[in-house]
Design a protein that fits this description.
29 helices; globular; 31 strands; 4-stranded mixed sheet; alpha/beta
């Protein structure tokens, strides 16, 4: 006999070990099974399972398990990313905590050896956490982005792209992290809103130039008064960068400065003569309309500088300190000064010398390194770049012509937007942990790009060479993930069989960092898209729609949930909520779907207690009982709905279809309708219904397995001895249900739908009247049609049991003291004498109505306050609106119940 409850703590590790030992995670090798492949978005080797991982990997596992049960050769390829900056930071912190020497004192080789040592002993937690979630990856094929074969692939790609002119070295602006002294990607930049200032500086015009600047305007915005100025005002939030200014920009249509374009200013402090240029970047409506241009320290200014031919002067070093290395006119007083100390010094000097015109307080967004926490500095430096524009063109075309599709399709817009406006991709990082750039330099600075040092030496004719110190951006090796993990550049069986992959499941925020780059590399090196479909999952937020963060205390830890509730409730919650961009998750939702699993478990126990067993030779196509023909059709419709939803990447629809069938159809109705059969004397009907219950339960476990694998596999195993042995030993290795359309029986569907509707109407009437559960009612049908009478006669025993009726009779006149209802298409009467205490019921309903009235008044007043609506967080306002709507709906319902009570009171009054 099944235990009273499912114990996930004991079952999940045992079941997962069984699955892994079975070898079923690996793709089938026998026969000519259709291939289905998916590569995992590789989590950082330093990482641990967070709620986003739980969502993403649940959806991938649903696909893998479903297609495996459909008989396909499924490869779900796992792996981890070396996570350059994150891993280097972890090991450096460990060194510091242990009081050891730092990275630079150790030297490169010793430090890299230490990182590998850390990986061997400390990494790997994310893989075991994915196992706890139930992920059925083929761990025998697990890859790491620094595996030797993947290093070979990276070097080959770099060298080939360089030979084709698609990788080159250039001096451009990058996001520079002064703490780690490395360039970082946009994804590693965290934008923080902070208090700051606009400092308004007056730059003196050179060569004695003056102009008339408007200071007053009429009602039409036309200038009425002017003053003569020998300076132009610019505003900046970063005064320290003025030391690198090489121009001032004004809008070409700004009449105030039209006569100054082509003139010069003398830059304060350094005395540099810089031109005034016209450029659309300057906004006449902001500040003075004139902006200082520092091409070496601002991304927008860099573009203005290119258009205007302005020099780019670096005035900071890798640590964010002022330096005169690029331009000797920076005063020695500032040499080596931290950028923020220089800011204070420059502002103080501007005040002393009189060219500080105003200080304007502001809130603005400042970029920070997501790992270091320091302010990022746009910095001009020599780096390696990929010609992303050229590689992007085939990637754009592939999606335009449908070679790869996005689900939902709306995400194609993000993909196209980025690729059509793509900038050169900076791929070099000033780190030690990662793929070292395969480029060598001779003493004259000549560059030799090769797959090995020996090849580079041959190119250099034996000259002494030094390898580039930098490593590649982590995203570079990740861009090769779909084919490098399958053995490329070798022509492997896996590559021939599983590339291109079938699906990619990932998040919207890395469409351009990862998805687009995989498309570019896959098309360039494999001449095929890397995946046929990209399924974008949403962002998991808290129940109020707020982003989860440790500081807010609203983080839901998936491992804590698994410890307490098991993996299945978490997985089902992820699936059923996955249809929105912003998934509002609460612990209560997860607990609710644990109850769903409990419902299934209890249904299996009920079936077992009623001797529902598999029968040799049982054929569901031949069942005779109406309820059995009905449930067979409902199961078939559920299978269609679940299959179509999973095939379409609509995991929420699949979960909803399962919920409806399991809870509403199988548990609430079929098993209830089967109870009288199990307890009856018709042995033929009883035997058929027992066999049908066992068969339906088996098919249900199959349908639920991709989403809730643990509880279904446990039930499959525990029920293995109920009747004739199954031919499928494990559920993970079982075949997906194959149910023909003929299983749907229209007559049975119509008949049981009528029965369900009649019982539901009677139960609803009982609730409205306020009848105690133990009280049995009389039902008098008023002149029913022969067809309806026949249905009531046929299902009389079931209706009386399920609706708790004493008897069902037929009358030609309304009995006194009764109310009239409609049930099963017939008019019927329920005698009320002695059934209900009108006064007590009115008191209860009035009390509930008063509570709703109080809520409506309180919340309505709050929402009627414009200050609350405008200042409160949007999710708080939405929560209050939902609360008001709920209270109003409840009050309407109670008003109807009180009116019904008045009607009953009139019915029961003695008539004289």
């Amino acid at each position: 006999m099944l235990d009273k409850t499912f114990d996930p703590t004991a079952a999940e590790p045992r079941l997962y070990a069984m699955w892994e030992d079975s070898g079923l995670f690996a793709p089938k090798t026998e026969g000519a099974a259709e291939a289905y492949s998916i590569v995992i978005p590789p989590p950082n080797v330093t990482g641990s399972l967070h709620i986003g991982h739980a969502l993403n990997n649940t959806l991938q596992d649903i696909l893998a398990r479903y297609h495996r049960m459909k008989g396909k050769a499924v490869l779900w390829l796992p792996g981890t990313d070396h996570a350059g900056i994150a891993t280097q930071m972890v090991v450096e912190r460990q060194l510091a905590a242990a009081g050891n020497v730092g990275r630079r004192e150790m030297g490169r080789e010793a430090f890299i050896a230490r990182v590998w040592e850390w990986k061997a002993t400390s990494a790997g937690s994310i893989q075991n956490q994915l196992r706890r979630l139930g992920s059925s990856c083929d761990w025998s094929r697990e890859r790491f982005t620094l595996d030797p074969s993947l290093q070979d692939a990276v070097r080959k790609v770099f060298v080939q792209l360089h030979r084709e002119g698609l990788i080159y070295r250039d001096k451009r602006l990058v996001n520079w992290d002064p703490h780690f002294q490395t360039a970082i990607s946009d994804l590693e930049v965290e934008q923080k809103e902070m208090d700051g200032s606009y400092w308004h500086f007056a730059y003196p015009l050179a060569d004695g130039v003056t102009y008339e600047h408007p200071v007053a305007w009429d009602g039409d915005g036309q200038p009425t008064e002017y003053e003569t100025r020998d300076y132009i005002v610019v505003a900046t939030t970063r005064p320290e960068t003025m030391l690198g200014d090489t121009g001032v920009a004004v809008h070409p249509d700004d009449a105030r400065y039209a006569g100054l374009v082509g003139k010069f200013v003398t830059l304060p402090i350094v005395g540099r003569r810089i031109p005034i240029v016209a450029d659309d970047y300057a906004d006449p409506t902001k500040g003075s309309g004139a902006v200082k241009i520092t091409p070496a320290h601002d991304f927008n200014d860099f573009q203005v500088g290119k258009r205007a031919g302005l020099e780019a002067l670096n005035v900071m070093d890798a640590f964010g300190r002022i330096t005169a290395a690029d331009t000797p006119d920076v005063p020695a007083d500032y040499e080596g000064m931290d950028r923020f100390a220089a800011r204070k010094a420059i502002v103080a000097r501007a005040g002393e010398e009189g060219w500080l015109k105003a200080i304007e307080k502001t809130r603005h967004v400042i970029p920070h390194g997501d790992r270091s926490g320091v302010v990022i500095e746009p910095w001009l430096t020599d780096q390696w770049y990929v010609d992303a524009h050229t590689l992007a063109q085939p990637a754009i075309k592939a999606v335009e012509q449908g070679d790869t599709v996005f689900e939902p399709k709306s995400y194609e817009k993000i993909y196209f937007e980025w690729l059509r406006n793509i900038e050169p991709w900076c791929i070099s990082r000033q780190l030690w942990w990662g793929h070292r750039i395969p480029a060598w330099y001779d003493a004259e600075g000549n560059i030799y790009v090769a797959e090995s040092e020996a090849e580079a030496l041959a190119q250099a004719g034996g000259k002494a060479l030094t390898q580039d110190e930098d490593v590649l951006d982590t995203w570079f090796s990740s861009a090769l993930w779909p084919f490098s993990t399958m053995g490329w550049p070798e022509d492997t069986e896996d590559l021939r069989r599983f590339y291109p992959t079938s699906d990619l499941v990932t998040a919207a925020d890395i469409i351009f960092f990862w998805v687009a780059r995989m498309m570019m590399m896959g098309l360039h090196f494999m001449d095929e898209v890397p995946f046929k479909r990209v399924i974008i999952n949403g962002l998991v937020r808290d129940e109020k729609g707020q982003k989860m963060s440790k500081s807010k205390g609203n983080v839901i830890d998936p491992l804590g949930i698994i410890d307490e509730l098991g993996a299945d409730p978490l997985r089902f919650t992820m699936a059923i909520l996955s249809g929105t961009r912003d998934i509002k998750l609460s612990r209560q939702r997860i607990e609710g779907y644990r109850n769903f699993g409990t419902k299934l478990w209890n249904a299996a126990r009920f079936s077992q207690m009623n001797e529902a067993k598999r029968v040799e030779g049982f054929d569901p196509a031949t069942v005779d009982q109406t309820i059995n023909r009905w449930v067979r059709g409902e199961l078939t419709k559920a299978e269609r709905a679940v299959s179509e939803a999973i095939e379409g990447g609509r995991f929420d629809d699949a979960a909803s279809a399962l919920y409806r069938f399991v809870w509403n159809v199988f548990c609430d109705w079929y098993l209830e309708l089967a109870k009288p059969v199990f307890m009856g004397s018709d042995e033929v009907a009883k035997a058929e219904t027992r066999a049908m219950t066992a068969w339906t339960l088996d098919q249900t476990l199959k349908l639920m397995h991709p989403i809730m694998p643990f509880i279904t596999e446990e039930l499959w195993d525990k029920l293995a001895m109920e009747g004739v042995p199954r031919t499928e030993a494990t559920l993970i290795g079982a075949a997906w249900p194959d149910l023909p359309d003929s299983y749907v029986d229209g007559e049975a569907t119509e008949d049981i739908s009528w029965l369900v509707g009649a019982v539901t109407e009677l139960r609803s009437s009982r609730a409205e009247i306020g009848v105690a559960p133990a009280v049995k009612l009389l039902l008098a049908l008023y002149n029913p049609t022969p067809d309806i009478q026949a249905r009531f006669d046929r299902h009389s025993d079931l209706i009386k049991t399920l609706a708790r009726l004493e008897d069902i009779t037929t009358v030609s006149a309304q009995p006194s003291g009764s109310i009239t209802i409609t049930v099963g298409g017939a008019s019927a009467h329920i005698p009320l004498q002695g059934i209900i205490d009108i006064a007590a019921e009115r008191e209860r309903l009035t009390r509930e109505a008063a509570a709703y009235d109080s809520d409506i008044a309180h919340v309505g007043k709050k929402l009627g306050n414009p200050n609350f609506v405008s200042r409160a967080a949007p999710e708080v306002v939405e929560e209050q609106r939902a609360k008001l709507a709920e209270a109003e709906a409840g009050r309407i319902r109670l008003t109807a119940s009180l009116a019904r009570l008045d009607e009953m009171e009139q019915v029961l009054k003695p008539h004289g």
